[in-house]
Structure of histidine kinase:
Amino acid sequence: MRRKNHKTSELLRIAGTAAKLGGWEVDLVKQEVHWSAETRMIHEVQPDFQPSVEQAIEFYAPEHRDRIQTVFDRCVNDGTPYDEIVQFVTGKGRTLWARSIGEAVRDDNGTIVAVHGAFQDISELIVARERSESLSKQLQQTLENISDGFFLIDHDWCFGFLNTQAEILLLRRREDLLGKCIWDEFPAADDSDFRRCYEEAVNEQHTVRFTDFYPAPLNAWFEVSAHPTQDGLAVYFRDVTERINNEESLRISNERFNLIARATRDAIWDWDLVHDTIWWNDNMLAVYGHDLVSTVTSSEAWVRNIHENDRERVIDSINKVIDGTTTGWQDQYRFMHSNGTIRNVSDRGFVIRNGDGKAIRMVGSMMDVTDRIELDERMRQAQKLEAVGQLTGGVAHDFNNLLTVILGNAELLTEQLTDQQQLRMLAEMTATAAERGAELTNRLLAFSRRQPLDPRNVNINKLIQNMDNLLRRTLQEHIDIETVYAGGLWLSEVDPGQLEGALLNLAINARDAMPSGGKLTIETGNTQLDQAYADTQDEVVPGQYVMVSVSDTGTGMTPEVRRKAFEPFFTTKQMGKGSGLGLSMVFGFAKQSGGHVKIYSEIDEGSTVKLYLPRANSADNTNYDGHLAPDIEGGNEIILLVEDDPLVREHVSAQLEALGYQVHTATNADEAHDTLKLMNNIDLLFTDIVMPGSMNGRRLADLALKLRPGIKVLFTSGYTENAIVHHGRLDRGVHLLNKPYRRQELAAKVRKVLDENPDEP
């Protein structure tokens, strides 16, 4: 039995040590205090220490002594047991927490003779509980302070906790929701993704994240994260209505942007300045031919495609905007198409800056304005043509009337002053000056495409061969001439006289570009201008053309000179050495003839001018050599001369009479009409076109042919438009002698018209 008791006591001792639990007793009769070994260990005193009642009380922390004294005294007095949590101070000065339990002990008479109990060190438990409470408090504070709404739901779907943000988002007070079922309080969530996702989280025991809309009264989009817990479900949620609306607005904006980007012909771009990447819409490929993946995806690639002469200016202009404070940028420059052609573009963009004002992005659009610029240039050219034409037309008639008299009299003086060389030379100089004046007017008319043309089907090879002597006299011996004639050359529908003048002008320009000598090459050929070429040129119709090229080995032209070469009065020659009308006359003649002209030139490499003249529609063996017969032939026919200018009328009448003709004169169309009514033997009506009064020369001729169906008609004018010339060409069957003219030209033209078979065209 003793061994068993001893063993039990030992087990209790071991358990007490493990639990930090000791026993004590106060003998009220003897006033002695007995502590067990465990109690002494807890108090960190000597193994044989036995305190008095006062000493035992003194071990308690000062703030707890009165409470222990009170409960101990009550237990002594009436036997009330106690169980208190108090602090005490060990013999080593450490403050710990203990559970102090006391019970009264009575004798056989029921008298309280002692108090005994237990004393347990619960410091670790208290610390753990305080830590737990602290953590719980911190967690609750955290949940209260987070920006997300948060609530806990138990297994019955009832609210167990809600933070302040949950109250705000749900528009409900937590005290109204705690313990309530979520599906009852928020019925719209019952048959929705909210319930389906919550049940999934609970049933599958994994986190579920989703976004859904809750209708009135919340009318909000929520982003939700539901986490299963041991007691139910923890839910975090936030209001993302603004983000969803922004995303929808952005989606709509992007959709509109994409629609615009697809609808426009502009190349839309978005430049990320931070990473130097450029996004382009499909028009970068469609309009400019550049692949969107492998090219033009950085500023370096973009700059590489800017024309080298524009590159520095464009870079400087865009850098000023990026480095400055403004937002808008705009420039116009030349941009390389992937096929190597140059396009004119108008580029504009806007800078987007961050909060520090630093440029981080640019967006804009690049518009191809090549066609617009070409159209503007054509309009300017048309206006220039109109202005020159109006100016020239305004003075040409009267000016050429004067030149007719001057040239005719200078010719007459030259023939009569055979023995007075000095006076004869002055007369010749006068005639030459008059011809140069007429040529100047004609060149201006040719440039403005108002020179009347008399196109025929011409063998250009033969025309050039007939010009050989004239060209050699013009170019002189220090320039070699080579001609390359194409076999089987098509006939060309062209005014041969005007073509001769154009070729002579080109030869003179070539001579002036080779002051130290060189080589002039004239080449002919058949060619076809296709639609692709016509699209890149101004006023070119696809079709078959006869090509005449004039090349020299002279000084060549700069690109700037080449661009201005066809402008009237533009010249690189010294003052008095050139009028600046040679190439402009060639240009106007080619265009008025329905053809095309192109210049190829490089500095120190010479120049080539190519004339493309329309192929004739029918085979006509007209043999034109451009030269008048050396002998002047007259006649004895009767001519009615109609001229409003008295000087010209008197001069021409005298020349015709000198040729043997019988001449009757009239000062205007009405007077001539009266004469025609009276005389039925007039062989030729020689009339000016532009005259004062209600009737012009063309109307007079129509009346004359009605009165005298067999009468021949020859028109003359210093300038005419529309009356006998339409679309720049003489009406079919019309004969015209342009003022001023020499007596030889007058005699030849009059004789030709009089001798013409009425059935000939």
In short: The two ends are 163 Å apart (CA to CA). Residues 1-16, 575-580, 623-630 have pLDDT under 50 and may be disordered. The chain has five domains: 14-128, 146-244, 264-368, 453-614, 638-755.
